Amino acid sequence: MIEIKNLNKSFGSNQVLFNIDATFEQGKVNLIIGQSGSGKSVLAKCIVGLHVPETGEILFDGRSFLDMSRVEKTEIRKEIGMLFQGSALFDSMTVEENVMFPLKMFTNMTQKEMLDRANFCLDRVNLNGKNKLYPAECSGGMQKRIAIARAIAMQPKYLFCDEPNSGLDPKTSIVIDGLIKEITYEYNMTTIVITHDMNSVIEIGDRVLFIHQGKKWWEGDRKSILTTDNQEIIDFVYASNFMKEIRENMQNR
Amino acid sequence: MLKKLFENIGLYFQMIWIIFSKPEKWSVFRKRVFDEIEIIGINSISIVAIMSVFIGAVIALQIASNMDNPLLPAYTVGYITRSTTILEFSPTIISLILAGKVGSNISSEIGTMRITEQIDALEIMGVNSLAYLVLPKIIAAVMFFPILVILSMALSLIGGWVALVGSDMGSTEDYVYGIRAFFRSYEVVYALVKTLFFAFIIVSIASFYGYYTKGGSLEVGKAATQAVVTNSITVLIVNLILTQVMLL
Q1: Which residue of A has its CA nearest to B120?
Q2: Which of A96, A143, A140 is nearest to A122 (CA)?
Q3: Does B234 lie at the interface with A, CB-CB under 8 angstroms?
Q4: DSSP structural state of residue B230
Q5: A-B interface: how many C-beta pairs under 8 angstroms?
Q6: What's the pLDDT tens digit per position in B199-240?
Q7: How many CB atoms lie within 10 A of CB B248?
Q8: Is B180 near chain A, with CB under 8 Å?
Q9: Mean pLDDT, consecutive 10-residue segments, chain A of 253 residues?
Q10: Alpha-carbon distance B104 to B109, whole Å?
């Protein structure tokens, strides 16, 4: 479980996050949603330590991340898997080497053991047989799946996904969403997904946190988001004409 | 502008402090060093060889063609070619060339990794990205640049000899005598010490610009250009200081 308390973050004079409090539960897919520029990616980067907040607390299963020494932070980062918006695969390495990278760095596994683990992870994301390809030779969807395989190689306790569906077609997006959901339940991870894709919200959002103008605006599950009276959520969820029609139909029933 | 300069200098030394920390895993680190020796060192042999042969040839020819005073001994061509090559051309000019080739390569490589979040990925995994990316490059450069400079010295002198004898402007005996005349091995030591400094400067400054790139591909290009310009100026300034300290 990850808890954040009273988190504030500014860039110069521009305050991006205001007193955010949230709890992300273990074994669930926790979504952070909001419009572009609302501060959701900054929030995620604060949680994983890529940005340092001005005030607040971040607790990984009760362990305060901001109070940790550099060594302790390094240790906890080994428990974190992250799927970046652009996949962030290492260009100079093959698919297999990308997945094996954290194992090489932090375990004493033999080459065969690492290879077995990499094959298992690649098989888990339906990419067996693609070991020797380079990221540049893979499609966007494949790159996301490789990134997921790399993220789960170390069997992390926490998984962060920054807009996992950006740039993907709807069908591939569903595959990626499905994978995130499956591995979250399978490994009982605390998963946090940053997205503005409503399909993802409906498909995988066990818990949903809505950020608006840097503030926590709403929190709930995927069902209640469709029926809430909160105007900002309604503007966000039913932004397209198609969704507006669906809402009207729901109300007319 | 001055504030920015001091901020950058502070950030640079902060980066150097982080770079020199214990690698996460020695086996991975060793492999990275060998990979970098190939990229930074071995892949630079051809350009260093070509530059050295031609510049050595031109130095010898220019000295020979400007020596019309009969009071100057014939071995002067070899003597000046050697001195120019060992003291300045091989350590300094070759380093400036490497500042362009290696510096822009390093800066754009690390800059691209920054903007494509590969460095963030390393950090989140718990890898000290600066130590992982930059330290092997510094070690590779410090190990291999002196070899390149020694190669350059030899090839420049050979280039000078080929040009001189080939154009019938001097004899092999006089040229070789000139190369050996008044030789002080300290000159080679001085050249190699300079090279070690230059190697460190070139790699660390290029890495600095790459690592702290912000934005997109345009900024990566700008960072590479800035890295080459700053490297060239720094190499020239350090060259002046080291010459003052070591030769005078």
Answers
A1: A50
A2: A96
A3: no
A4: H
A5: 53
A6: 999 999 999 999 999 989 999 999 999 999 999 999 999 999
A7: 5
A8: no
A9: 92 91 92 88 89 92 89 87 90 94 91 93 86 92 90 91 84 86 91 88 88 89 82 80 76 71
A10: 8
Please give the backbone phi and psi of residue B45, each rounded to the nearest 5 degrees, phi first. -60, -45
| Any A CB within 8 A of B38 CB | no
Residue B48 has pLDDT above 90, yes or no: yes
Strands A190-195 and A158-162: parallel
Helix axis angle for B118-125 and A95-106, nearest 10°, is 30
CA distance A161 to chain B (A): 12
**C-alpha closest to that of B203 among B110, B88, B92, B114:** B110
Residue A82's beta-bridge partner residues? Answer: A160
Closest CA to A219 of A240, A231, A233: A233
Question: What pLDDT is stored for residue A95 in this prediction?
Answer: 95
Provide the residue type at B108 as one letter. Answer: S
Q: Residue B92's closest CA among B183, B208, B229, B196?
A: B196
**pLDDT value at position B70?**
81
Structure-token pair, residue B115: 């903007």
Q: Which of B17, B32, B117, B133 to mutate to test the interface with A (most CBs of A within 10 A)?
A: B117
Q: What is the pLDDT of residue A241?
A: 77
C-alpha distances (whole Å) from B160 to each of A220, B81, B84 are 80, 7, 11
Average pLDDT over residues B14-24: 89
Cα(A151)–Cα(A126) distance, rounded to whole angstroms?
15
The pLDDT of residue A205:
87
CB contact (8 A) between residue A88 and residue B24: no
B126 vs A85, A90, A106: nearest CB: A106
Please report, for residues A101, A134, B45, B125, B225, the alpha-carbon distance to residue A105 in angstroms, rounded to integers and kept in the order given.
Answer: 6, 20, 32, 9, 33
How near does any CA of chain A get to the CA of B196, in Å? 28
CA gap B47, B62 in Å, rounded: 22
Which residues is A11 bridged to in the sheet? A14
pLDDT 10s digits, B58-92? 999 999 998 878 888 889 999 999 999 999 999 99
